[in-house]
Amino acid sequence: MASEKETFGLTGPTFLTSVDWNNSNHRRSIAASLVQGVYILERDRHQNRQPSQALAPLWWESFHFMLHRVLVDDHDLSIFGAIYEFKFPPPHYAYPGLNPPRFVLAFRGPINNSSSRAEDIKLNLHCMINNLESSSRFRIGMEMTQEIVAKFGVANVWITGHSIGSSIGLLIGRHMTKKMGIHLESYLFNPPFASPPIDKIKNEKVKMGLRMANSVITAGLAVAANGGKMPTKDTVNDPFLVLSTWVPYLFINSGDVVCSEYVGYFEHREKMEQIGAGKIGRLATKHSIGSIVSSARGKDSEAAHLIPSAYLTINSSSSMGLMESHGIHQWWRQDLELKYKLYQYKENRCMH
After folding, report:
1. Nearest to 144 by CA among 189, 184, 110, 178
2. Residues 305 and 320: beta-carbon distance below 8 Å
3. I need a surface site. Which of 68, 148, 185, 269 has the fewest CB within 10 A?
4. CA–CA separation, 24 vs 16, rounded Å?
């Protein structure tokens, strides 16, 4: 039996009867709805809903998209992603200002059914140990992204995802930027931050002390791994600086332990600049202790969740429970208490 949350007419952004692609709230709501479409595609499949009973199509058809392709996991045959195509490509539309994307690649997070739970858990573990690149879901997503971009151009492609699906989207965006110099417009909801949620500590002095200690330790390990020398400034080959030109949209709920640390991560880097410890802060922000230890063992391990630049949208609504604060449905609600901040990384300072 279908739940209310699966039914577009009951819980979807039905207020979007006329879409303004220049409106950031509209773009956010549609990106989130397309991710929800992937969740419902998998639930339709798992519950063997026939086309006449399927609940998924309204989540994209309501915004003039059609399903171009489903992305299927090699191991459990579950649907983990989808490629949507806008129904009215150029030259059939002419919107003032921003155009809708020609294609959107969307990736879901974990889903509560027996057939896909094991692979979802495995993907979470890959994320925690910075090994998401070895997963078949990332490989498939990356191949499809490269194929669509090669055919239709980067300006026509969006990436979106929720939870671990955001981690896949984040990693795809990193690869496209660093290896191909391509900046994908990316809408990433509740992306996991693979470290303890220090941001949830109420005492500001304790919180600041823990962040300072972590920065000093991480920077010290990075120097030790570099033979005891501070890494030289290399504005051409520094992968973190190369990556800084890509600015994904991150949607964070301050009450969600999975992603809330992104707020502290960016704010702390800014505070380190303010107190004159920017060099330590910039070095620490590029590394995690786990990635440094793995590199010292000869493994090519990168902390994929650490990104130099982002446009943060923070939902600080206090009325949500733990499950709701991590859910995708919040991101098309009209009563959200949102804060916005751009963090743009520079080697000599962090701009905002």
Report:
1. 184
2. no
3. 68
4. 13
Residue 26 above 60 pLDDT?
yes
Cα-Cα end-to-end distance for the chain = 47
In whole angstroms, give the CA distance from residue 308 to residue 286.
8
Residues 6+ apart with CB under 8 A from 20: 26
pLDDT above 60: residue 161: yes
Residue 235 near residue 222 (C-beta atoms within 8 A): no
CB 136 within 8 A of CB 58: no
Per-residue pLDDT at 299: 47
Residue positions counted in the chain? 352
Q: Which residues pair with 351 in a beta bridge?
A: 344
pTM: 0.86
Q: Strands 338-345, 103-107: parallel, antiparallel or unpaired by DSSP?
A: unpaired
Q: What is the mean pLDDT of the chain?
A: 82
Beta sheet of 310-315, edge-to-edge order: 65-72, 79-86, 103-107, 157-162, 185-189, 249-253, 310-315, 338-345, 350-351
- Non-local (6+) Cβ contacts of 290 within 8 A are 129, 130, 194, 301, 303
